[in-house]
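Hey,

Quick one before I head out. I ran the complex with phosphoenolpyruvate overnight. Inputs first:
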Amino acid sequence: MRRNPPFIAGNWKMHATLAEARTLISEIVKAAPGLSPARLVVIPPFTALCEASKLAQGSSVGIGGQNIYWEDKGAFTGEISAPMLKDAGCSYSVIGHSERRQFFGETDSGVNRKIRAALRHGLSPIVCVGESLEEREAGKTIARIKTQLDEGLREMTREDMGRIVLAYEPIWAIGTGRTATPGQAEEVHAFIRKDLEEKYGNPTAAYVIILYGGSVKPANAYALFKEKNIDGFLAGGASLEAGSFIQIAKEALRAYEEE
Ligand code: PEP
């Protein structure tokens, strides 16, 4: 039996001027009441967070940042802290996105420190894990995910797990138009759920939200959400248009309501 209603998050990455952000968030906020009980979260660039938070106020749409640094404040030019995200109206922060790991040198131990900082300040981390194409082709997918979970979630408690969202995002599927098949995604999601069950037991493991990310669009959302361990999506490209983001939520809801 499925425990969680659809959780649909849109990672805008380094896109959207303030004017574009206003239009996008306003359309999503307008659609949100019709998409209940799906949980919608938008993740704009830092420059648009305050404006997005203001426009989402009083709605069910959550706001998240794309990254945080683990210190609360100090001489860390270019970084943003968890208290700053809270102050800007965020409830979530993406941590360990593969683009951060690939281009900005993020490590599993850094991811662990960032998760702790987020939790310390009342933010729910959306923690990304995923393998590269070479790792998949070498049969190392599960080993890679296991390491990311072991190190990234080191010393997390059951209570912490109640606030952490996980996102499985195969690197070869991000921004490439090449989505994992529902079977490929479910295989990894089921592994993650089992790993959580071994570490935290049930019901904790059953309720952890595990998202899939990697070229999700309206056309593939229904089939992916039909898989037992896929609780929703972290969408990049498709979240930059309100219509396709909303349609992804509708497709997930359609699959959810059939159960
Ligand atoms: C992402 O940004 O996390 C992502 C999955 O991007 P896309 O949907 O464009 O592949």
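The pocket of phosphoenolpyruvate is lined by residues 11, 13, 169, 174-175, 213-216, 234-238 (CB under 6 Å).

Talk tomorrow,
K.
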